[in-house]
Amino acid sequence: MASDEFQPLQGMADLGPPEVERWAAAEQEARRIFALYGCEEIRTPILERADLFIRSLGGETDVVQKEMYAFEDRGGRALALRPEGTAGVMRYVASKGQDAGDARLFYIGPMFRAERPQAGRRRQFHQIGAELIGAPHPAADAEAIALHAHLLSGWGLQQCRIRINSRGLPEERAAIQSAFRERLLPHRDALCEDCRRRMEANVLRVLDCKNPACQAILADIPPLTDFMSAAARAYLDDVIRHLEALELPIERSPNLVRGLDYYLHTVWEITHPALGAQDALAGGGRYRLQFGGRAVEGVGFAVGVERVMMALEQERPANTAERLPLVWLIAHGTAALAENMRLLQTLRRHQLAARMCLDERSVKAQFRAADRARASHVVVRGETEIQKGVFLLKNLATGEQEEVDMPELMRRLSALRLHEKT
Ligand code: HAM
Questions:
Q1: What sign for the dihedral angle of Cα 79, 81, 87, 89?
Q2: pLDDT attached to residue 422
Q3: How far apart are CA 204 and CA 223, in angstroms?
Q4: Which of 145, 260, 312 to mutate to test the pocket of ligand 1 (most atoms within 8 A of CB)?
Q5: Which residue, 99, 198, 296, 335, is most buried by CB atoms nearer than 10 A?
């Protein structure tokens, strides 16, 4: 078998037990914080009609044009793996009508984009996101950003930067683009080749260009908000005022245009220095979409879990030597093995995670297995201990070892209990 047959597809990754442990802890913390804001969990399908994403994200966006895993099923229907979570949530909200008018929903799950893989950029990646439906008021945008910041600090990330801007109103988008194009036109020949093409296809993407020559030209062009209506500018000012009152440090970023078409008014992005070129840890904004006669409006965000893990690894490296709340039973002789199998079940009934080697091997090899499993304690039993009715308990973190009877064993291990029964 060729060695790459053991590998997942390019841009996709297996998560082994040590990673899953960290991911699950991050998800648990996210659920705790979402509950503080009254958000409830939603799980929408991974596969949707392609049209849902084309209509909501925009047919001309990179995500739809270049990155969507779209295909026809056997019945000739155009389907797509979800490239993001907001469109599915909006479809769900529209299907519920008034009942979901002011829902606060969060989701955790895989998304798919056929991008060129690199550090922090995958084809299957995972998002944790939240959507506050309805509430078309700057206070709701500020609360969504506060929730977003709370989530990141809950994970222990302290080096995040929040940048904010406005996309204006959908009805003024064409006017904003043409005013911006007009200001760029005199500099057209000095722009890079990509940007000359962007001027025709999607002029606001010029703002994302990293080329120093293009950056220099952009520095002399007024910020996008200058081309927006007074109402759009006032909305952004209000959001910022609310955020200042919450003492959340944010930066105005006149060049920030997020790459999805459903946004209106506020957009924001959160970056982290650990991420290098792909430095967006998370992004969000206010959006509106029409479903039949029904408009769904909301404000929300999504965090890229892989990128959060990269940032966390830099800020708080994982302690892989840390021991788990696990008791490992070690048998000295065949009789002890059978006795230990009974003890295993007793420990588990008392909510203690317990394992042992299910074969006959040397005591030394059993200690090695306990160590590999990162067990915190071992209990050793041989003929003598069984006859005396005692257990040799060793704490593997401290090396302390002592002989205890059954009640004392349970007392010593009680701190490791996984769930206390009520
Ligand atoms: P987005 O900016 O496209 O927004 O994605 C959000 C986050 O997902 C990014 O900041 C990044 O951390 C992560 N991400 C995106 N693509 C990849 C990739 N190929 N590999 C790894 N991570 C990736 C949205 O998806 C919107 N739905 C956010 C939103 C929710 N806006 C309003 N509500």
A1: positive
A2: 46
A3: 11
A4: 260
A5: 296
Residue 321 identity (one-letter amino acid): A
Residues 54, 304: Cα–Cα separation, whole Å: 22
Residue 366 CB burial class (10 angstroms; 0-12, 13-18, ≥19)? buried
3-class DSSP state of 334? helix
CA distance 282 to 293: 31
Q: Assign 134 to helix, strand or coil.
A: coil
Testing ligand 1's pocket by substitution, the residue of 42, 124, 127 carrying the most ligand atoms inside 8 A of its CB is: 127
Whole-number pLDDT of residue 240: 97
Q: Is 88 in the pocket of ligand 1 (CB under 6 A)?
A: no
**79 sits in which H/E element:** strand 78-81
* Domains located in the chain, CATH noted: 3-169+228-315 (3.30.930.10), 326-421 (3.40.50.800)
Q: Report pTM.
A: 0.90
Q: Quick: pLDDT tens for 163-206.
A: 999 999 989 999 999 999 999 999 999 999 989 988 888 898 89
Dmax (CA) for the chain in angstroms is: 95
**From ligand 1's centre to the CA of 324, what distance in Å?**
33
The CA 95 to ligand 1 mean position distance, Å, reads 24
**Ligand 1 atom having least distance to the Cα of 307:** 12
Cα–Cα distance measured from residue 311 to residue 271, given in angstroms and rounded to the nearest whole number: 10
Mean pLDDT in residue range 266-294:
91
* Measured distance CA(64)–CA(62) in Å, rounded: 5
**Does the beta carbon of 261 lie inside 6 Å of ligand 1?**
no
C-alpha 186: how far from chain center: 42
